[in-house]
């Protein structure tokens, strides 16, 4: 065990005394086999309260769970001291971003836990993972003296080297012999299992076989990674391996791959990574029968490698990304496929959904119909139900009907106007029984006899059961349940699902994303623990920049701007002016074309923007404020006009008049409301494109906080592309940073996260 010299220990002691806000991870650095783990054990021996966690083979999420468990178990009143060994070897797969997730996200961010301070010391091999480099708080161990031997040298036989290279290319540390055989064939060295066993007996200083002589591994992680460097596989070799795995599993027949022997078990965990390294992961993701067999962990690690710059918008990869963002952590492959099927249906991928069902993976529950909004989508979706705040049921001549309600009360902080959007649905088909109607009473206040809010007051309720989804899982009210001998539990759900109603043999589930219905295969077949609200560390991937919506792109090119504006502000709200109605001083050709071809839109109660076109009358010309002689000189200087004008009043925005510069076509706020920055837009078309996009954003029912955040981030990026000068001005900066406007649009959409 290496010695900790006095200088190193003094540095460690100084690190211990730092306040939490200044403390960073203390790094133990060095190449393979230099004694980093032993160094951490020596620290633990001198610091008995410290806990050592070996990260080898563990996902970042598992490491995070262990760190939390150790902090809870540590003696009360003391700081938690965590020593992370083998960070460079984290991850179930050998090609993995898990070491980086531990090194860059988890370890630096774990400074406090449940009010207690946490010290983290971690081991890094800089050749495999980039450590945090803070010279004051790190120790670098020297390169070990080469031991020599066959483990350090390539075999004289090229075929033997390629066999070792094929074994190193495997994604698991312990490799079944049939998998090694398959990978050897993919690398151009066909062989038999018997020959591979004989080969292992000749390479005992490099390889070790398990007791059952069914799998093999390198004797050390360092030797394994050395062989990965010596015999790297290119994309063609990875593609051959992926194809061989697909063929082998197809020949094994239907059923779960994990039940079809060692090759199937390996494929379920490693096929996505081989496909990612081959540059062919999208083809696997689009094949529902293959997708259904791959574990959630395998897919997430492969996504991180395949899409380092972010998952593409509205892709299957994005679908998987948002499942992780929602905190969905399945306890079985069937539960994972049930969520894949649900999300495929919700995103309109019916063919993929059918392939998932045809995969042979048994599902504990199945989505029968869905009006649940797909995550990672900008703007409203045709036919979406919107957020559901209340849930009820009514009995009619044709049977029971599900009733949903959404609170759209406006003016809640001052003079509330209580309004609720109510709609009825067929619980068997999901078809709307009625159009959405606006009422002035909630379900609990109105005449609806059976609702989640009133169930305890109605002993004669029909054959239904209500359930509420909380942080501790589902809670059913069996007091309203009559006549059903066995009630299956609702499936474990993300936090956006808030209520449930068991009716006609299925659960209708509702929440921030709308509603959907599931059929549960067996009673008590699903876990009752709720999913976490977010991943334990962070999602493996992030979304790539979203493309500007096609309708916005077309409108900015001058195609369909009028229809696009009236789609949200109402038919007939764009008031055109005839050529002879345009003011003589309006010289800018783009502004003249907008006013005659698109027309000035009528807008109120949105972003403190009020535009009321004056029928067929011309635009009123006004002087820039502060120009008159009766205005004090100091105010005249502050309100200096941006140009010689003339200026035309369009309406008001953010407590100031919105003015159009007739010479340049630019829009300004006259700053009478106190803002020092008058910039509003470089042109009418750019200004109203940004207003229209923001209106779309504010009316959208985002079910998840991350979904809302991604949409706002991309909206800001689009506005920067459309009109960078205006987007950086004070007014638009305030808007795009999420200022809480009290207007009707805000209350119609999801509550801010």
Structure summary, number of beta strands? 29
Mean pLDDT: 88
Radius of gyration: 32 Å
Envelope shape? globular
Secondary-structure content class: alpha+beta
Beta content comes to: 15-25%
Number of helices: 25
Textual characterization of the structure:
By secondary structure, the protein is an alpha+beta fold. The protein has 4 domains: 135 residues, P-loop containing nucleotide triphosphate hydrolases (Rossmann fold, 3-Layer(aba) Sandwich), CATH 3.40.50.300; 214 residues, no CATH class; 144 residues, no CATH class; 198 residues, no CATH class. It is 34% helix and 18% strand. It contains 25 helices and 29 strands. The strands form 6 sheets. Strands 23, 24, 25, 26, 27, 28 and 29 form a 7-stranded antiparallel β-sheet that branches. A hairpin with a 5-residue loop joins strand 27 and strand 28. Helix 5 crosses helix 6, helix 10 packs parallel to helix 13 and helix 14 crosses helix 15. The protein is globular and about 95 Å long. About 3% of the residues have low confidence.
